[in-house]
């Protein structure tokens, strides 16, 4: 009888326990926070100028804009009413508590691989966030994509539920990297091409994609366009600081590094690097560079000398920590030239991290270089100093300029 | 009625070099810091696009990034018998405006003052007797020595990445550097800049004359550099758009390149721009500051309480803020009493322009601090006995630019327009070398700053009045220097030279230099200084004042290196003050 009374007294504590950071829970919550950082949840679940995790960011997809959810524990507009099971179901199956389907812009095809233990830790951390009331219109897609039930068919075709299966023939480090990249890190969501239905193409996993008018490069171990020439240490350094001797991260990867990878433990970064280096190489074979005598190359060179060489140097060597080296830079070797074109049109800024806070800017030069000139100079950069990639046409520049300027960026 | 804001640990007035360094160093200790800046926010990425930064019309002619007279101006006169009138267009000097202050548009010459400069009064009397000091002078020793400041010079040079060649490393004279400089603990962080053909001729001529030329220390960096704050810079491209311009290339040391990227990451730091501090507020007994009052861009008045007030505006405006706030006793030249506004000083400019034949100088391939200098005639590096003046000058052969609108040197007598002018420009553009002397100005009883009795600003506050002229000592010194410059120009092979004497009386219209100093000087005697040796107000111990307003008189060098050193010196004092608040020196 005495024992039973204790049990009754304890019950109400359990009932409210989920929403309060109890001291016992500290380790679990900290682990959840680290996982939320590794998953870079804040990037999509925060509107421009909005409260962190309160949602409202319009994600552009080929099917229309999808507004991201409020994942603060606000009971009316966030996930305050969700149980741990509800949360796990969303992450593993792409279903809301009532059973309605989520769109794969929320990358549950990746999150399905995350362990239940990790999901519970993430859930515990999210419960500790200050609840923010922010009602988000979650139904912004046009017909017929607004019919969420259509995801039933999509899932049948393109979604393989199920947890991560480590490869027993690989090292623990490789498997840890695989778990992060293929699961919570959802690297493939940007770095893998989509099929016509917006699903990541498994046959082209991590071979590069265009995302938000930026090039998400090939990050397989491919020598030409991928990380084949990068060492494990260089990849770790890049994820930690946003820079290597050749590259400075900008565009969406700047946010990934600032919000996520720069704050991850070095052991996880190394695991990611080992996985990316050992997983394999895939990509188109390197084209023959255009000859310097090609008229496009001659025009491009003249523009490069006048406009680019003061910072990037005549030799394409750049300046460490400041201006990317163009000779041998992987972004020049991608089939998709979007990043090079848009950064000339609209400019950009490099990553700022604790160790390298400067965040140098590339100024926008779209106001003084026309489409032909940009096409020529990008073609020149893609085919000089040992670089080799397909020439770029003025039409591609024109089209991208329309999208970049049209989007008000 | 000002609305009251939540208290801050530290309130900083002005976000230039001194304000940004102190803001960063204090915010990183966890203190809540707010910097209140009159002008706009400026950063390299948003404000200085490589495609538009080199706009001479916008920046050099229309002075885009400078203070506007409607924001603040002064009245000026040459001596107390005149009636001062407002400066309605900045001319002789150009104060900066906005975040970064004058650190945005400066040329980047980053000097250490010489050991003798810090005890010039004692030194001159010891060597030449009291009679060498000019009439009516207020020359006084600094309360700090070169050795006191050496580690702090070093800190500033490391943060700014200065390019140069040491001439004295721990007492060992180094070939290629300045043999007259005080002993340095370390070599410069980056090697000296490349020099042009002009500088080659100057070096050869000066060396043959027994003088000691060296590349001048430069904040236009010769090489890529990452400073102790993690901020990175790129090598200078010698584009020739430094002075009056922001650098788009991350090559000129400035708060923007060297401090702000680290500062803006500090969670306990806040900047409020386009907010003008009108007053430092004091307790009823006037013995402690309680914060500041400021007016925002909409004209709303706010009170920002704070435990510590750091006055970090431009030298002249520091002095005005002290006068308007009632901190320290205003200087009265009639009674020769009081301290605030006392010992205002400036600099002299004189030299020689050489016209050459059969040479091709490239003035457009330059930077604000390219150039070769010599210190043989600076401070007391030469015997002043025969000359009867105090002070000296650094002598430099440099061109900082060959910009198309304003750089067209022509010989005297050339018409101001027409075909003869065009021909003279064509003939001279690549054939002119200037040897210039930047000279010290001593402090005098009748060169001072006070509040104008007549003119007021838009907020109804009295303008500050500047009473200044070059005294006979400075005229004698500068004109003697011009002759030395002329000798060198001739030895360089100039076919004709023109001596440029010091213009007197001092004229506020043509640009001369923005090296305005003094008015809130540091010292060991509270009757002749506003600040103690730690840059702390003698009267209000939770107010510290940074900048060249603390110089007791001016030296023959650009001031920023010494301003930077004093800032780090002041920082250590502030950290000590925070441990145990109170006067760091008893009166």
Written account of the structure:
The complex is a heterodimer of chains A (409) and B (587). The longest helix of chain A is centred in the last third of the chain and has 18 residues, at 295-312. Chain A is 42% helix and 4% strand. Chain A has a two-stranded antiparallel sheet. A two-stranded antiparallel ribbon of chain A has the order 3-4. Chain A has 409 residues and is mainly alpha-helical. Chain B has 587 residues and is an alpha/beta fold. Chain B has one domain (3-579): FAD/NAD(P)-binding domain. In chain B, the strands form 5 sheets. In chain B, strands 1, 2, 3, 11, 12, 13, 14 and 22 form an 8-stranded mixed beta sheet that branches. Chain B has a 6-stranded antiparallel beta sheet with strand order 8-16-17-18-15-21. The radius of gyration of chain B is 23 Å and the shape is globular. The relative contact order of chain B is 0.19. The A-B interface holds A 310-311, 319-323, 347, 349, 352, 354-361, 363-365, 367-368 and B 44-46, 49-51, 224, 226, 229-235, 237, 239, 248-250, 257, 261-262, 264-265.
What's a quick, concise take on this entry?
With 409 residues, chain A is mainly alpha-helical. Chain A contains 16 helices and six strands. With 587 residues, chain B is α/β, with parallel strands linked by helices.
Provide keyphrases for this structure.
heterodimer, A: mainly alpha, Cytochrome Bc1 Complex, Chain D, domain 2, 3 domains, 6 strands, disordered N terminus, B: 587 residues, FAD/NAD(P)-binding domain, eight-stranded mixed sheet, six-stranded antiparallel sheet
Report the CATH superfamily of chain B: FAD/NAD(P)-binding domain
How much of the residues of chain B is beta strand, in percent? 15-25%
**Which term fits the overall shape of chain B?**
globular
Q: Helical content of chain A, roughly? A: 40-55%
Average pLDDT of chain A works out at 91
The tally of strands of chain A reads 6
Tally of alpha and pi helices of chain B:
13
Low-confidence stretches of chain B: none
């Amino acid at each position: 009888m005495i024992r039973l009374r204790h049990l009754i007294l304890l019950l109400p504590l359990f009932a409210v326990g989920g929403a309060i950071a109890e001291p016992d829970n500290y380790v679990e919550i900290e682990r959840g926070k680290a996982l939320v950082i590794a998953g870079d949840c804040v990037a999509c679940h925060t509107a421009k100028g909005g409260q962190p995790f309160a949602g409202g960011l319009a994600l552009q997809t080929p099917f229309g804009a999808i507004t991201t959810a409020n994942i603060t524990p606000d009971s009316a507009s966030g996930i305050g009413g969700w149980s741990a099971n509800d949360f796990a179901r969303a992450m593993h199956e792409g279903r809301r508590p009532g059973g309605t389907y989520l769109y794969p812009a929320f990358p549950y095809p990746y999150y399905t691989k995350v362990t239940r233990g990790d999901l519970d830790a993430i859930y515990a951390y999210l419960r500790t966030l200050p609840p923010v009331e922010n009602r988000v219109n979650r139904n912004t897609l046009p017909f017929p994509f607004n019919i969420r039930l259509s995801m039933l068919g999509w899932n049948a075709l393109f979604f393989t539920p199920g947890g991560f299966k480590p490869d027993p023939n690989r090292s623990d480090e490789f498997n840890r990297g695989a778990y992060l990249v293929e699961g919570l890190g959802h690297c493939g969501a940007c770095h893998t091409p989509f099929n016509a239905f917006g699903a990541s193409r498994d046959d082209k996993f991590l071979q590069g994609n265009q995302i938000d008018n930026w090039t998400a490069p090939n990050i397989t171990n491919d020598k030409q366009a991928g990380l084949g020439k990068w060492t494990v240490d260089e990849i770790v350094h890049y994820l930690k600081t946003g820079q290597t001797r050749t590259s400075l991260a900008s565009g969406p990867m700047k946010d990934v590094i600032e919000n996520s990878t720069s704050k991850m433990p070095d052991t996880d970064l190394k695991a990611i690097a080992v996985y990316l280096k050992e997983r394999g190489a895939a990509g188109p074979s390197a084209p023959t560079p255009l000859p310097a005598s090609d008229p496009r190359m001659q025009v491009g060179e003249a523009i490069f000398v006048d406009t680019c060489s003061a910072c990037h140097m005549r030799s394409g060597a750049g300046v460490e920590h400041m201006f990317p080296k163009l000779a041998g830079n992987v972004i020049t070797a991608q089939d998709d030239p979007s990043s090079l074109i848009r950064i000339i049109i609209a400019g950009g800024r490099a990553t700022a991290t604790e160790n390298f806070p400067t965040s140098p800017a590339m100024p926008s030069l779209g106001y003084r270089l026309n489409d032909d000139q940009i096409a020529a100079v990008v073609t020149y950069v893609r085919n000089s100093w040992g670089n080799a990639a397909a020439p770029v046409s003025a039409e591609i520049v024109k089209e991208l300029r329309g999208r970049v300027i049209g989007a008000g960026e | 009625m000002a609305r009251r804001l939540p208290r801050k640990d530290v309130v900083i007035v002005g976000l230039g070099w001194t304000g940004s360094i102190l803001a960063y160093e204090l915010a990183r200790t966890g203190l809540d810091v707010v910097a209140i800046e009159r002008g706009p926010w400026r950063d390299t990425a948003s404000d200085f696009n490589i495609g538009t930064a080199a706009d001479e019309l916008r920046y050099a002619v229309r002075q885009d990034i400078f203070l506007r007279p409607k924001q603040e101006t002064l009245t000026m006169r040459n001596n107390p018998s005149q009636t001062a009138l407002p400066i309605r267009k900045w001319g002789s000097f150009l104060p900066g405006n906005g975040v970064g202050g004058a650190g945005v548009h400066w040329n980047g010459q980053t000097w250490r003052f010489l050991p003798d400069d810090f005890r010039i009064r004692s030194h001159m009397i010891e060597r030449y007797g009291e009679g060498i000091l000019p009439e009516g002078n207020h020359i006084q020793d600094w309360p700090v020595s070169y050795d006191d400041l050496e580690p702090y010079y070093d800190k500033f040079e490391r943060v700014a990445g200065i390019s140069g060649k040491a001439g004295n490393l721990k007492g060992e004279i180094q070939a290629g550097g300045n043999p007259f400089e005080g002993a340095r603990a370390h070599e410069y962080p980056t090697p000296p800049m490349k020099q042009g053909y002009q500088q080659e001729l100057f070096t050869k001529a000066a060396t043959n004359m027994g003088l000691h030329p060296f590349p001048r220390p430069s904040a236009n960096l010769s090489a890529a550099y990452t400073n102790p704050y993690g901020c990175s810079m790129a090598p200078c491209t010698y584009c020739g758009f430094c002075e009056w311009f922001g650098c788009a290339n991350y090559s000129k040391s400035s708060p923007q390149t060297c401090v702000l990227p680290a500062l803006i990451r500090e969670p306990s730091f806040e900047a409020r721009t386009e907010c003008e501090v009108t007053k430092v507020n004091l307790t009823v007994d006037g013995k402690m500051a309680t914060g500041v009052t400021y007016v925002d861009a909409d004209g709303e008045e706010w009170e920002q309480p704070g435990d510590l007030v750091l006055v970090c505006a431009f030298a002249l405006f520091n002095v005005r803020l002290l006068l308007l706030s009632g901190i320290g006793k205003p200087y009265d030249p009639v009674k020769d009493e009081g301290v605030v506004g006392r010992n205002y000083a400036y600099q002299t400019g004189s030299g020689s322009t050489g016209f050459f034949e059969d040479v091709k100088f490239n003035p457009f391939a330059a930077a604000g601090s390219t150039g070769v200098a010599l210190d043989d005639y600076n401070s007391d590096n030469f015997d002043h006995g025969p000359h009867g003046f105090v002070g000296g000058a650094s002598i430099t052969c440099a061109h900082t630019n060959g910009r198309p609108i304003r750089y067209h040197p022509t010989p005297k007598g050339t018409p101001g327009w027409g075909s003869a002018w065009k021909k003279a420009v064509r003939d001279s553009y690549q054939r002119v070398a200037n040897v210039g002397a930047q000279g010290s100005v001593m402090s005098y009883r009748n060169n001072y700053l006070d509040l104008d009795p007549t003119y007021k600003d838009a907020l109804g506050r009295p303008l500050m009045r500047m009473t200044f002229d070059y005294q006979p000592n400075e005229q004698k010194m500068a004109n003697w220097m011009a002759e030395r410059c002329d000798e060198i120009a001739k030895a360089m092979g100039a076919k004709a030279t023109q001596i440029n004497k010091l213009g007197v009386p001092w004229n506020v219209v043509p640009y001369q230099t923005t090296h305005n100093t003094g008015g809130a000087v540091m010292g060991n005697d509270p009757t002749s200084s506003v600040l103690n040796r730690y840059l702390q107000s003698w009267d209000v111990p939770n107010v510290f004042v940074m900048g060249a307003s603390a110089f007791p008189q001016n030296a023959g060098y650009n001031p920023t290196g010494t301003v930077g050193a004093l800032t780090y010196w002041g920082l250590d004092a502030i950290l000590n003050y925070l441990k145990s608040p109170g006067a760091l020196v008893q009166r």
